[in-house]
Amino acid sequence: MEVYFLRFLNPSAHVHLHLVPSLFYDSKKRRRRNCKLNAIFKNEEDAATERASLRFQETLRPDPLFIDPYVGCLVPPDFQVNMKQHPHKHCLATKFIDDKLLTTMNHTDGLRQVVLLTDGMDTRPYRLNWPASTIIFEVSPERIFRKSNQKLKDIGAKIPRSCLFYHIPSETSDIQQILCSKGFNGARPSLWAFQRFWRLSGNLAMKECLFLGELPAWLGETEDVVESTTRRWMDKLFMSHGFNVDIIAYDEAAGNLGTESMVDNYNNILFVAEHLRFSDDQMEIWRTEFQRIEEEGDEEGFEEL
Predict the structure, then answer these.
(1) Can you give the pLDDT at residue 44?
(2) CA separation, residue 101 to residues 106, 114, 192 (Å)
(3) How far apart are CA 6 and CA 119, in angstroms?
(4) Could you give the CA distance from residue 2 to residue 272 in angstroms, rounded to a whole number?
(5) What UniProt keywords are attached to this protein's entry (predicted)?
(6) Distance CA 305, CA 300 (A)
(7) Number of Cβ within a 10 Å radius of residue 117
(8) CA distance 264 to 51
(9) Burial level of 225, CB count in 10 A (0-12/13-18/19+)?
(10) d(CA 196, CA 19)
């Protein structure tokens, strides 16, 4: 069964969200949604470039939410800037995730692992002020990442010297195994970020780790979508896979930043989810410890006899 995620945290992942096909009960809806999935995966680079363009435009606004000094090299040379009064919701989500990433890392003891599930054009590894000793794992399409990474190197973008960065091609058949081979430790805290649709499986994240990101609302669409329906769908989806989820309204995020969101047809769901289950690494540590205690108990009983 396939497991799908948004890029953060996008990436990113007990990383089991069986969105497809287990939630697609109706055959007509399944065909419609699968068509959307196919469109997403076929136009990855175009979509990534569009998102980069939105972040580039935000950087050029008179009162930007953030300044991305590197994203300009990822935008086509003939790109026409269309300045807007208010920030795009994608940029609101980007700022929200930026702030949540750094705030959580700076206030959580031992948290130095970040997994970014991205479209291959995410500049966070270069532009964010990561705490010393942060290990950044990026999972993204190899082809897009390779082209973007070269452009970023050409303009002098560098990972902070005190941090480590590893890229994992999203096309690989076993992302979990490669993450672990690069040094990811499921018995230590980690933070996951997603800002595009992703597939991932595994029980990597330890209990209480946070997942930040956006989900496309059409995944849970019904014939008559209302806010309460979306919230019930999100609660059911996340709780059934060991997460407690909070939906963040874009207008709320904008208000907290002292601005307003652009009125458009952007139809994603911004969320923060807490992982409630133990990771495979945690379970293995406890199994080993339990076995050790049992063996010591057997030895003590033998000595008494």
Answers:
(1) 87
(2) 9, 9, 9
(3) 10
(4) 22
(5) Methyltransferase, Transferase
(6) 9
(7) 33
(8) 15
(9) middle
(10) 14
**Chain center to CA of 103:** 16
- The dihedral through the CA atoms of 214, 220, 223, 228 has a sign that is negative
93 touches 253 (CB < 8 A): yes
3-state secondary structure of 191: strand
Phi, psi of 237 (to 5 degrees): -60, -50
pLDDT bucket at 301, cuts 50 / 70 / 90? low
User: In sequence order, what are the beta bridge partners of 271?
Assistant: 213, 247
Q: Is the pTM of this model over 0.85?
A: no
Closest by alpha carbon to 60, among 43, 80, 78? Answer: 80
Q: 280-290 burial string, b = 16+ CB within 10 Å, else e? A: bbbeeeeeeee
Q: Furthest-apart CA pair in the chain: how many Å?
A: 85
Q: At 235, list the tokens.
A: 């609660």
CB-based contacts of 63, cutoff 8 Å, min separation 6: 259
Place of tokens 């458009």: 264
Lookup: tokens for 206: 């330890």
Beta bridge partners, 198, equal: 5
Using the structure block, give the residue that is written with the tokens 């108990």.
297
Residue 266 has pLDDT above 70, yes or no: yes
